Amino acid sequence: MCGIVGFLDERTTEEDKRPILSAMMGEITHRGPDDSGIFCDGAVALGFRRLSIIDLAAGHQPMANEDETVWMTFNGEIYNYLELREWLIERGHRFATLTDSEVIIHLYEEIGMECTAKLRGMFAFVLWDARTKTLHGARDRFGIKPFYYTMPGNRFIYSSEVKAILAHPHVVPQINETSLQHYFTFQFVPDPATLFEGIYRLPPSHYFSLKDGQLALKRYWQLEFKPENKPLSHFIEGTRHLLTEAVRMHMMSDVPRGAFLSGGVDSSVIVALLRRQEKLSTYSVGYAENKYDELSEARRTAEVLGSDHHEIKVSAGEFWQALPHIVWHMDEPVADPAACALYFVAARAGQDITVVLSGEGADEVFGGYGIYREPAEVRKFGLLPGALQALLVRAAKFLPEGTKGKDYVRRASTPLAERYFGNALIFTEEQKDKLLPCRSRRILATAVTAPYFAACSHLDDISQMQYLDFNTWLSGDILVKADRMTMAHSLELRVPFLDHHVVEFAATIPAHFKIAENMTKYVLRQAATAWLPQDVAYRPKRGFPVPTREWMKREWLEDVRAQLMQSNTTEYINKQYALDLLAEHAAGKKDHSRRLWAIIVFQLWFATYIEKSIKLTQ
């Protein structure tokens, strides 16, 4: 795992490029504390920070081919690189190292940027082809590895993290107000935009080519749900085979490795498969206040599987104090409290190991979110006569806001594409009208979701929900916090559930096997009984939950009030509305914890990256 930075600029001399590169690289030292490198050639400047994982002595970057006409910087891991290396050797290529990085260079020489489709792993890389004066770049299928870019004044500037782009003298941070509206719907900004005006993410499954100032993007892989009419046993056995293979491949490293363990089925499967191969350290996070402690299930699972288990307990005060550092590492606001838990457990794991495996992606791949039960729950409403449906819709309008009956009728009478915005609907459009003084016109959340629903409208409702989450929630929330919170502690995180062979197979599972017997991830749970006790395989979803709801009523109440009062974000946030939300929450009238968290994270981000009143460094 590493960090890459660079730019293409015809007007800046090499003498001036080097200090700019150094400043950019300095912002991401945490991504690669072991080594650094710079390459400048005419218009191009490439910078690199390395965290050594494979071929520790010979993996220096930027790396070139034999005649130094192709240069590359690469962040990630290619798990099938040995197989590709053998194929390339048979075709006459010669290698100077044992790294996966060098394989990509030779694969590019052989088949161009179509090489991306051959790669099995997680990656973000840039290639400079001096022969054609073209800069190429690519990102893995799911966005496990980050890639940001901007193009101010005919320059192309890129990095693994936005903070490095902001270190370039020609980049001035400004807020994208369309993205701000989307942030307060989704709790993150969906691809390809960011909350920074003019700074973008390279979308997952894409590569680009930049020549003569013209940027061209191309998709090289597309997730397709194709349910197959086969028996349950086919999907169980296929899942067992492919997960076993994926975990084996993800073990590749020349440094110590371990796993996160929450006690749920996802992380427990990873640990069980790892433990079959080697002794293993596992890591969990809990809370100093015993009533919030979720460590017992992870502890019991570790005992059953025989891992060397480590726990960290964090207090409400420690969480609050760490939040500015977490926001700095995240680059842009992601209002997911689980990022804080991940930050602390990664800090503990980073004391012992360099590579950690985790269960991210399992819920999207196998249908693990509770909201995926909704289509079955609302189906009964659709079976009622039309006149009765209309009567219930009218009657529900008179029920108090937030009552179960009102919410059920609203969901059941609204098409999926108009009611489902992913796992987190933070503020409704009406609530955003009250929250955002800058909202001169509504940018509806459906502007983001409609193209995805249009692309999968032929699928069943559960698959449509999965498709949306794959294209928004997974890359915008889950994988962003996974990358940033582990890289904050120079820890490489690997996610075997997002091996694309596993994902493609899971996309053939029909809806009635995704959720069955009132259990989510039914196929995965059935497959897991080969490795886990039944009580673990069937255990409800865990993760690393954070008790923000209760902390905001007590331990954090005055801190939250002070934050809302003192923030200089009145241009963007209606302070009185935010304080009213806090008052209702503290009184126990409504649970506004997710809305308040989204506001707080935005305010801290604003102070760090726009106002720059909070100054943090490595």
CATH class of the largest domain: Alpha Beta
- List the domain count as a whole number: 4
Rg on CA atoms, Å: 24 Å
Morphology:
globular
Would you give the CATH topology of the largest domain? Rossmann fold
Which properties best describe this structure?
six-stranded antiparallel beta sheet, Rossmann fold, alpha+beta, 618 residues, 43% helix, Glutamine Phosphoribosylpyrophosphate, subunit 1, domain 1, 15% strand
Account of the protein in words:
This protein has 618 residues and is of the alpha+beta class. It has four domains: 198 residues, 4-Layer Sandwich (Glutamine Phosphoribosylpyrophosphate, subunit 1, domain 1), CATH 3.60.20.10; 204 residues, 3-Layer(aba) Sandwich (Rossmann fold), CATH 3.40.50.620; 53 residues, no CATH class; 63 residues, no CATH class. Helix 6 packs antiparallel against helix 20. The longest helix has 19 residues. The chain is globular.
Q: Mind sketching the topology for me?
A:
Elements: E1 2-8, H1 14-26, E2 35-41, E3 44-50, E4 63-64, E5 70-78, H2 81-90, H3 100-111, E6 121-129, E7 134-139, E8 148-150, E9 156-159, H4 162-165, H5 177-186, E10 199-201, E11 206-211, E12 214-219, H6 232-250, E13 257-260, H7 265-275, E14 281-287, H8 295-305, E15 308-314, H9 316-330, H10 338-349, E16 355-357, H11 362-366, H12 374-382, H13 386-396, H14 404-412, H15 416-419, H16 429-435, H17 446-455, H18 461-471, H19 473-487, E17 492-494, H20 500-506, H21 511-514, H22 522-528, H23 534-537, H24 548-551, H25 557-566, H26 575-586, H27 593-610
Helix pairs in contact: 2-3, 6-20, 6-22, 7-8, 9-10, 9-27, 10-19, 12-14, 18-19, 25-26, 26-27
